[in-house]
Write a structure and sequence with these properties.
Radius of gyration: 18 Å
Oligomer: single chain
Strand order of the largest sheet: 3-2-1-4-5
CATH architecture: 2-Layer Sandwich
Distance between the termini: 13 Å
Shape: elongated
CATH topology: Nucleotidyltransferase, domain 5
Mean pLDDT: 87
Structural class: alpha/beta
CATH class: Alpha Beta
Number of domains: 1
Order of helices and strands: HEEEHEHEHHHH
């Protein structure tokens, strides 16, 4: 990462990940008056949708899109959107070792775009990926204990939260040399 920042001072560093949003509410702790048990409506509906998300770790800007699948082709499509959003800047992409983060389609995209560099996180270390913390915050704010009666409004609320909320993950302060935090 240090080499990337020195070589590309205006470059973009993004952490990529995917998650699944289920219509069925997930439960978490909640405050309630003494003697009043909180009620969370649980639906038997198992509808779900995936989100691809990429966090700009320098500025806390999130780009997320809903999708029906997690595949190499979808990963490539999502990366092409990132390339369009930053048409002249080099992009360092931090990602985990999910099966859809490998394959000939991705190799071809990398061969055709010298502005895009990949760095894989070590195996079984999701806590290192800042995007995982974004998912956690979004689930806490929108997904846990939700009372949406239809799936579409939940998807819209989740999508809006992800794409409109600035996220201060502190990745650069934690993992980059101090001088790089000032860039």
């Amino acid at each position: 990462m240090t080499d990337f920042v020195q070589t590309h001072p205006q470059g973009v560093i993004v952490a990529l990940d995917q998650m699944s949003l289920y219509f069925q509410a997930t439960l978490t702790r909640v405050w309630a008056p003494v003697g009043q048990t909180p009620v969370v409506r649980i639906t038997p509906n198992r509808d779900h949708l995936h989100f691809y998300g990429a966090l700009d770790v320098r500025h806390g800007r999130e780009i997320a899109i809903p999708t029906d699948e997690e595949t190499t082709a979808m990963t490539v499509n999502f990366l092409m959107v990132r390339l369009l959003l930053f048409p002249t800047q080099a992009i360092l992409l931090l990602l985990d070792r999910a099966p859809w983060h490998f394959g000939p389609e991705l190799d071809q995209l990398l061969a055709e775009n010298d502005r895009l560099e990949l760095v894989y996180f070590p195996p079984a270390c999701p806590e290192l990926n800042p995007q995982e913390h974004v998912w956690e915050q979004a689930r806490e704010a929108i997904g846990h204990n939700h009372d949406f009666r239809q799936f579409e409004p939940l998807i819209d609320a989740f999508d809006s939260y992800l794409n409109e909320t600035p996220f201060d993950i502190g990745f650069m302060e934690q993992y980059a040399p101090p001088i790089l935090c000032e860039v």
